[in-house]
Design brief:
Strand content: 15-25%
Number of strands: 18
CATH architecture of one domain: 3-Layer(aba) Sandwich
Helix content: 25-40%
Largest sheet: 6 strands, mixed
Oligomer: single chain
Radius of gyration: 26 Å
CATH class of one domain: Alpha Beta
Shape: globular
Number of helices: 19
Low-confidence stretches: none
């Protein structure tokens, strides 16, 4: 068990945590949620002992082993992949080296023999005799092939280093597992494996993630970091979100009787309990929901931006025609022979195992770079707005305030462009009051994305192109963006790592590869489960 007692942490006048009291118990997975900058990652560092609070204590049951997902990809550059994983069990690694040092002694004594025997016993108790095979199995399950296990970490690709560090954290069945954004740079198959692993995990897990689908799959509880406090709620992320929204609506409904409100909440809990029985975390989550006290459901204090796009005119029948489009970089093919037409009503999710292929495709159809071969043609009725993966060019060298920055992008057709007009678009993205005088050269990554979205909304496009739109955004902005794309009446062409965004927005999937493409009119989950699609993907990605 972990017990957090009166923990307070402040940096100058900025108070992150103010007398936080909270407990985490065995058998549960806690999703740590909160706005960007609320202190989610900092809280994990307090739990791990990396950061000392100004006041208060963190008490852990004696003898329990903690493992933390390492964020430094270069920390083990001179260590082999397999040994990096073994080092995740620090005590076992220490015992192994102490034992080997004794055996290596030239003047081996009787006392050494006794000590070695004790170490052998401890080593066996910790699973040392199967450790290498266990670590190798774990690596293979995470997609790190056998031939890479004896390579030094510095010789392994960055996307595989992430998996090795994840294996290091998971290795040896730690009693407490701390994971900060564990799904970053993982493909959908590896994320699915991790979801199943954590769903069966019987110890304590604390996880920070912006992936709602992942949180829903693994969490039994949500720990909400808000206004310098942390409160634990029963259920996964969707349960927390929908219950808090229901509570907020009930709070504002002064005419509704208390008995009716309680009945609505009970029905809501019953519905989620039924759904929980079908989930990966079935048993623990269903039991937790059944024990839930009505009074625990509280309205959220979160603010959600207003991401609402209105198209100035509807698209015609000719929208986008792509014909045999191909692109390589330094001799490496990114995509080839892309051939498709965009139809009315399309919301197309583009997939690839190579993120550079997706960005290059969007850059090509936006006229920002040239294809090696093939053509693309936009219809005459189309007006586009593009959210690039890298938006730095819009802010580099700029010291304008937000009002003047947005003024640069006012469409020629706009009328009555005054301060209130610009404030309206910035206000929708939660820039209010004096914040609109903030200089663009001090914006965070999330603030820059919100500025870009303000610019796009102002353009009234009928075709939106989004390259990883949820990057840098907090959960509230991601939800607002997701909802905005569902309700947008125009065309959406996008790529994202957010499973729920992909599943709820896309009605068509196009996967681009160096050897061709797959084009299917179906949802993302249907695409992943389709056996014919799996066979096609395997063939296209086989070297």
């Amino acid at each position: 068990m972990i017990s957090v007692n009166n923990v307070t942490l402040a940096y100058g006048k900025r108070v992150l945590f103010d007398e936080v009291n909270i407990g985490f118990t065995k058998g549960n997975c806690y999703g740590i949620i909160g706005a960007n900058g609320a202190g989610k990652s900092t809280f994990l560092k307090i739990i791990s002992g990396e950061i000392e609070p100004n006041k208060g204590t963190v008490d852990i049951t004696p003898g329990e082993r903690m493992a933390v997902l390492n964020q430094n990809q270069f920390a083990f550059d001179e260590v082999t992949v397999l040994n990096t994983v073994l080092m995740g069990h620090k005590k076992m690694w220490q015992v192994m080296h102490e034992r080997d040092a004794i055996y290596a002694k030239a003047d081996f004594t009787e006392a050494d023999g006794i000590k070695a025997g004790e170490l052998e016993h401890d080593f066996g108790e910790m699973g040392g005799y199967t450790a290498e095979s266990d670590a190798a199995t774990l690596l293979s399950e995470l997609g790190v092939k056998d031939e890479l296990h004896q390579l030094l970490m510095k010789d392994v690709a960055a996307n595989l280093k992430v998996r090795v560090l994840l294996a290091q954290a998971l290795f040896g069945n730690p009693d407490i597992l701390l994971l900060d954004e564990p799904t970053n740079n993982l493909d959908v198959e590896t994320i699915s494996w991790l979801e199943n692993f954590l769903a069966d995990y019987e110890n304590i897990v604390l996880v920070v993630s912006h992936d709602r689908h992942f949180l829903d799959a693994v969490c039994t509880h949500v720990a909400d970091v808000d206004r310098s406090k942390i409160k634990v709620y029963t259920g996964n992320y969707t349960f927390w979100y929908e219950s808090s929204q229901l509570a907020a609506r009930q709070l504002s409904d002064k005419n509704k009787k208390m008995e009716e409100k309680r009945k609505d909440l009970l029905e809501f809990i019953a519905r989620f309990s039924a759904n929980a029985s079908k989930s990966k975390q079935a048993t623990s989550r269903k039991k937790a929901l059944e024990k839930l006290v009505i009074e625990e459901i509280q309205p959220s204090n979160r603010k959600y931006p207003g991401i609402i796009f209105k198209q100035e005119r509807e698209v015609g029948n000719e929208i986008l025609k792509v014909d045999n489009l191909s692109k390589s970089i330094e001799g490496r093919p990114l995509f080839s022979k892309l051939k498709f037409d965009v139809q009315k009503g399309d919301k197309i999710a583009f997939l690839s195992r190579d993120p550079l292929a997706l960005t290059s495709f969007f850059e090509v159809i936006n006229g920002r770079t040239k294809a090696d071969a093939g053509t693309y043609e936009w219809g005459t009725t189309v007006t586009t707005a593009y959210l690039p993966n890298d938006n730095s060019e819009y802010f580099t060298g700029s010291s304008l305030n937000l009002m003047d920055w947005l003024r640069q992008y006012v469409p020629p057709t706009a009328k009555d462009v005054d301060e209130d007009f610009l404030r309206g678009f910035l206000g929708k993205m939660l820039f209010s009051g004096d914040e609109i005088m903030k200089k663009t050269n001090v914006l965070s990554g999330g603030e820059k994305v919100r500025c870009m979205v303000s610019k796009m909304i102002m353009q009234n496009p009928n075709v939106l192109m989004l390259d990883e739109p949820t990057n840098h955004l907090d959960m509230e902005s991601i939800i607002a963006f997701n909802d905005g794309m569902i309700s947008f009446p125009g065309i959406v062409l996008f790529t994202t790592h957010d499973h729920q965004f992909m599943q709820t927005v896309a009605n068509r999937i196009i996967e681009i590869t160096p050897k061709g493409m797959i084009d299917k009119l179906m949802t993302y989950d249907e695409y992943l489960e389709d056996e014919r699609v799996k066979a096609m993907r395997e063939e296209l990605y086989t070297v």
